[in-house]
Amino acid sequence: MSRSTSVGGGESGELLHRLVGGDGGAALDALLDGFGQRHPEVSMRDVADENLSLEVKSRILKESPPDVWIEWPGKNLQPYDDAAVLGDVTSVWEDTDMERYYLDGPRNAAKFDGVYRAVPLNIHRINNLFYDVEQAEALGVDPAAIDSPRAFAEELQRIDAETDQTGMLFPMKNPWTVLQMWETVLLGEHGHDTYRRVTDDAAAAHRRAIVDALDIVGQYAEVATEDRLYTSLTDANERFVDGESVFFHQGDWAAGAYTESPEFDYGTDWDHVPFPGTDGLYAMNMDAVIAASVTDDSEAVSTFLSYVGSADGQRRFNQKKGSIPPRTDVDTSAFTPFLQEQQSAFQQSASQPLSITHGLGVRPDQLIELKTAMSTFVSSWDSEAVADDVVAALDRSA
Fold this sequence. Notes:
Blueprint: E1 4-7, E2 11-17, H1 22-38, E3 42-48, H2 52-61, E4 68-71, H3 78-82, H4 90-95, H5 98-101, H6 104-109, E5 111-112, E6 115-116, E7 118-125, E8 128-132, H7 133-138, H8 149-162, E9 166-169, H9 175-199, H10 207-222, H11 233-241, E10 245-250, H12 255-260, E11 270-274, E12 284-291, H13 298-308, H14 311-321, H15 337-348, H16 364-380, H17 383-395
Parallel strand pairs: 2-3, 2-4, 9-10
Antiparallel strand pairs: 1-3, 4-12, 5-6, 7-12, 8-10, 8-11
Helix pairs in contact: 1-14, 8-10, 9-10, 9-16, 10-17, 16-17
């Protein structure tokens, strides 16, 4: 699927992305509309391609890269940086107020060796634990009082043993949901320092933590529904809305289905807390706009990146996307109450860990191997053997 539209006039640039339809398409349209109003002198042609990464790589090899594209930042961009094909956008950061209003997590995800290579556009929180308010109250469960992933496993086991309720739906049809659960458990049970060292080529030194997190994930699986291996994220999310479980762990994008349900009200029917053990941490997935090192119109690129990093651009985009802005000064008064709370938690967070599952915390080749390891895990439940696979993936040189 592809589309091509343009906004603006004189100077020109090309934006490649995969945001078509749904909240992503609406968010991009809002961003481009705002850009066109602010900068009618610049023409920004947007081209959609569902095989974005492949298309970007192909065009770089053909020496005709897009001027800018939307992609995950962090270690996902490491191969591009190694190949010296990313533009230096440091001047965009330094000539605007962006450095002042971005927290360390998003800023670090945009930099390689002190040079800015990207402008983060939005943030999704990974470490949410959603819960059914009525069920939690009926069972005498205080989600905010569960202080660790291991304590959460014990609570799920109690619910399974003493009631007819499902403690937590756990979709495993796609290995990324299992990987996301594992990284969240690792973060909550062993802390941000261990999490960061595991992703920074020191996984072998923390193998016991890796095994322990896998064991806890296995405990969650033991009390999940029998069809867990065949359940997709979308199906599980819909079943949570229908009241099938007390808890559901997922990124904040899952809440889009909750806010669209007329009989599932925030604060009354559903609520959320940080996943046990991760209070004060804002584990992030994000999109960013990246510039190529070669462009026919550097002025158009700089103008567009400056708008992407502005409060106006991020307000427009994130309100439609169902995410929060990486800037801390954006007016979110028109956002949903849930997203306003997410923004407040982001601003108050002590650290903003980069997600493994969504490519910010690991390189693309490592992510493929980690997903493969999780596929092995759900078929064997052998924590020791899978830990060896995880260590091999994370400690292997690029």
